[in-house]
Amino acid sequence: MSSVRLGIIGTGGMGGAHIQSVLTGKVTRAQVTAIADLDAKNLAKHPTITGFTDANELFRSGLCDAVLIATPHFLHTTQGIAALGAGLHVLVEKPLSVHKADCERLIAAYDRRPEPRQVFAAMFNQRTDPRYKKVKDWITSGELGEVRRINWIITDWFRSEAYYASGGWRATWKGEGGGVLINQCPHNLDLMQWLFGMPTAVRAFCRFGKWHRIEVEDDVTAHLTFANGASGVFITSTGEAPGTNRLEIAAERGRVVIEGDSITFDRNRVPMSEYSQTTGDRFGRPESWHISVPVANRGGQHVEVVQNFVDAILDGVPLIAPAVEGIRSVELGNAMILSTLTERTVDLPMDGAEYERHLQRLIAESTFVKQVRAATAGEDFAKSHTK
Q1: Which residues neighbour 380 within 8 Å (Cβ) at sequence distance 6 or greater?
Q2: What whole-number distance in Å separates Cα of residue 223 and Cα of residue 229?
Q3: Please, which residues bridge with residue 200 across strands?
Q4: Residues 279 and 148 grouped into a single domain
Q5: What is the CATH number of the domain that holds 66?
Q6: Residue-by-residue pLDDT tens, the chain, 387 positions
Q7: Terminal CA-to-CA distance of the chain, rounded, Å?
Q8: What's the rounded Cα separation, in Å, for the pair 206 and 106?
Q9: Rounded CA gap, 70 and 300, in Å?
């Protein structure tokens, strides 16, 4: 095989962007040979590509070697299982699924596939960002030493009322399964666990419809506890403008801050615990050096992940984001909502079945009436995913 025949499931905002990435040659050694969308009008926008209104027909068509699933969140599980069962390589847009129990079902379907299994990837494009890659390297190499505290304020995911009104499924328990934690912040939750590992406990305070006419969370403050005793604070919202994106890490070797287009590292000459135990100076602190690391770009983002998916199929290269890791960000988001609903600290690993029961109750008891209006023509979709 010299080229991957790719099917795109869901041709809306994100799916449409993926189609263009391949058609314009940004992704090489791939061709879009089929698309699927429930709305035939969306298929008509691409008259030269074979279209299906039923994704299962595409899976069975023999027209594709791989599929990229970019449909509403609840469909990721059923469509992912069906695509894997059809023997196709699969790339799933974030989140992997809406809740942990569905992630477990999808991963189990993959695990049941005969060896060698298909390539199974997730769209965690912010792993390509040089800022986070640099910090990942510092942590893995031991350059930072043990992490003591993490503070991430990520409130520049601003969304307007028009955004939420642009689809009947958006920001509803039944249609989307959550708000900022399931739509925007899976990227940041993935980076959190990718960099620091999973916490052992979560206590969160979610506000539902605080800033918008929606029934799901649009404002979250969470406290995280890690196995080594480190603590973390995670704050996010879609109701603040201009908002903030600041990740601060306190570690034995100093403090790292990622904000804007640079990384600053105030590096301790002596690790802080060593200094604390050996100094005779009651008010002293370790000497530190201020290091600024400019970053010229944000990496290849979505295009790089799709290209990596193609390269993994053709050349066997390691995946940037294996799909089996996608359960972790989902679990973190679920734990924050569960903590709020039950007013308690949630220990991790959490019981996926317990959260699923709470979500089903929220869906069954919802009386929320969604107001929907057409999106403005010609909007720049890229603005929604450039964080």
Answers
A1: none
A2: 13
A3: none
A4: yes
A5: 3.40.50.720
A6: 899 999 999 998 899 999 999 999 999 999 999 999 999 999 999 999 999 999 999 999 999 999 999 999 999 999 999 999 999 999 999 999 999 999 999 999 999 999 999 999 999 999 999 999 999 999 999 999 999 999 999 999 999 999 999 888 889 999 999 999 999 999 999 999 999 999 999 999 999 999 999 999 999 999 999 999 999 999 999 999 999 999 999 999 999 999 988 899 999 999 999 999 999 999 999 999 999 998 888 899 999 999 999 999 999 999 999 999 999 999 999 999 999 999 999 999 999 999 999 999 999 999 999 888 876 655 655 555 444
A7: 35
A8: 27
A9: 19
Among all chains, which residue has been given the structure tokens 């060593």?
274
DSSP 311-336: HHHHH-PPPSSBGGGHHHHHHHHHHH
The backbone region for 86, taken as left when phi is positive above 0, alpha when psi lies in -120 to 50, beta otherwise, is alpha
Instruction: Please name the amino acid found at residue 262.
Output: S
Q: Is the pTM of this model over 0.90?
A: yes
Q: Please indicate, yes or no, whether residues 137 and 93 belong to a single structural domain of this protein.
A: no
Sign of CA dihedral 331, 337, 341, 345: positive
Say yes or no: 95 and 228 in one domain.
no
- Specify the DSSP element, H or E, that contains 224: strand 217-225
Element (H, E) at 3: none
Q: Amino acid letter at 105? A: R
